[in-house]
Fold this protein.
Amino acid sequence: PDLVSQCTPRLKSWSPLAANNQFQLQFIWGSGSKNIIIPLQLTWQTMTPPTFLQWQATAHMGSTDLFLQGEFQLESAAPNQTTLTFSARVSPPNKLLGQMIQTTAPSLIENFFRCLKTTIEVV
């Protein structure tokens, strides 16, 4: 969680909830004085260290809940190489929110993995 939180875009804070597999996160969204805080509860469901993690989350955006789920899978590709496969599924409750996610998610995900790669290679 410490390494991942260092690389999570727009993350304001996080704290563990239970047995180090549930977390409460707060994200900042917006710009300037029009920032809002989006709380998100994240659960690491199936863990097979160090190769597999399945997760689910619920973000609370006002009166709207956004459900997310996904996986991380690590595989040895060759000596000194590891392949990371990542998937995420989001079920937006309306078209506007879906368009916002499609517009912003690619750059947030790219920044996350760029930072994670740099951070993990140092460890």
Summary: The radius of gyration is 15 Å. The helical segments are 2-7, 95-122.
